[in-house]
UniProtKB/TrEMBL annotation:
Name the UniProt record assigns to this protein: Leucine-rich repeat domain-containing protein
A Pfam family hit: LRR_5
Record keywords: Signal
InterPro entries: LRR_5, LRR_dom_sf, Surface_bspA-like
Superkingdom per UniProt: Bacteria
Length: 253
């Protein structure tokens, strides 16, 4: 009996140590925030949050900090691109404190380059601006904001098109209302998309040249289209095309 109790205690101890080890393993996987010195920043107009104006680092895995000098990082308003588009950034992760990403007056461009493989956007971001992440040709992982409402023109053009492991499936957030023209143009690896009932507008060539697109989940209602949103998607079967046409689409495939 004593031997059985001893064995039972040993097994319990081993199990407990395994659980603790797993906990430590997961804790270690939490991404380390990039130092404040990697960014140019200032207080917002209200004086209660940080707005990042430029990236000054050397690339690699970039994790934008949730706080700088004790203030929450609330957004990006880029004066000029600096290194966001030319540094070899391989992953870009935003904290959920960020609610806007935009360019200052007179500035424009894209936040990505051909090295970026992972992009995690903040859950409270409502608008992804025009061409903001276009040209991320090696992107293999994309996390869209939970509260996203609008995707701008050309926002993800050529997404993952230069790699066989590029984005294959996109499930759009349930609050999304608008997908701009050319948004996912030349998304060569995209095989399936799920568009929620909330979507009201899809722009011209939004999914144009998504040559491997084979499956679509569409809203059960009429949608406004800005043109041939699904042009040059040759692998869509008649059944899948009917799903799209049932939403009011009259363009080509």
């Amino acid at each position: 009996m004593k031997q059985k109790r001893f064995v039972s205690r040993v097994v319990s101890l081993i199990f407990l140590m395994s659980v603790l080890s797993m906990g430590n393993l997961f804790a270690q996987k939490a991404p380390k925030e990039s130092p404040a010195s990697d960014f140019k920043y200032d207080l917002n107009e209200a004086g209660d949050g940080i707005v990042i104006q430029a990236y000054l680092g050397k690339g690699g895995d970039v994790v934008i900090p949730s706080k700088i000098e004790g203030y929450p990082v609330v957004g990006l308003k880029l004066e000029i691109l600096y290194n966001f588009d030319i540094s070899p950034i391989t992953s870009l992760i935003f904290p959920d404190t960020v609610t806007f990403i935009e360019f200052a007056e007179g500035a424009s461009g894209t936040l990505t380059n051909n090295k970026l493989k992972k992009l995690v956007l903040p859950k409270n971001l409502k608008i992804i601006g025009d061409e903001l992440f276009g040209g991320a040709v090696n992107l293999t992982e994309l996390v869209l904001p939970e509260n996203l409402e609008e995707i701008g023109v050309g926002a993800f053009t050529e997404i993952g098109c230069d790699t066989k492991t590029g984005i294959k499936s996109i499930v759009f957030p349930k609050k999304l209302k608008k997908i701009g023209g050319l948004a996912f143009y030349v998304g060569k690896n995209i095989q399936s998309i799920t568009i929620p009932e909330s979507v009201e507008y899809i722009g011209g060539q939004a999914f144009g040249l998504c040559e491997n697109l084979v499956s679509v989940t569409m809203p059960k209602k009429q949608i406004e289209y800005g043109g041939d949103a699904f042009i040059d998607c040759p692998k869509l079967t008649l059944k899948e095309r009917k799903k799209i046409k049932d939403t009011g689409y009259t363009g080509g495939f």
